[in-house]
Amino acid sequence: MAKGKDVRVTVILECTSCVRNEVNGVSRGISRYITQKNRHNTPNRLELRKFCPYCYKYMIHGEIKK
């Protein structure tokens, strides 16, 4: 069986707020989560509300490229 046509793929979710809130060019950190999604059910980029330990609140985490 071909490995390239898997239905479930591993995606990385990154906090959208931490990327934008760099203070003086230095960021405290970027929250990232690893999860899986079904490529057929959700063909668009995945966005979930997850807890960000650097912002200390629930923020939107968006899918990024590997």
Which short descriptors sum up this protein?
66 residues; mainly beta; Rubrerythrin, domain 2; four-stranded antiparallel beta sheet; 1 helix; 4 strands; 8% helix; elongated; structural constituent of ribosome; chloroplast; Ribosomal_zn-bd
Please name the CATH architecture. Single Sheet
Main beta sheet, described? 4 strands, antiparallel
Oligomer: single chain
CATH superfamily heading? Ribosomal protein L33
Number of helices: 1
In the CATH hierarchy, the third-tier topology is known as Rubrerythrin, domain 2
Strand-pairing-aware structural class: mainly beta
| Helix-strand pattern | EHEEE
Which strand order does the major sheet show?
2-1-4-3
How large a portion of the residues is in β-strands, by DSSP E? 35-45%
Topology:
Blueprint (H helix, E strand, L loop, with lengths): L7 E8 H5 L11 E7 L8 E6 L4 E8 L2
Antiparallel strand pairs: 1-2, 1-4, 3-4
Could you provide a short overview of the structure?
The protein has 66 residues and is mainly β.
Task: Provide an overview of this structure.
With about 70 residues, the protein is mainly β. It has one domain: Single Sheet (Rubrerythrin, domain 2). It is about 10% helix and about 45% strand. The protein is built from 1 helix and 4 strands. It has one helix spanning about 15-20; strands at about 10-15, 30-40, 45-50, 55-65. Strands 2-1-4-3 form a 4-stranded antiparallel beta sheet. The radius of gyration is 14 Å and the shape is elongated. The mean pLDDT is about 85. One of its GO terms (cellular component) is chloroplast. GO terms for molecular function: structural constituent of ribosome.
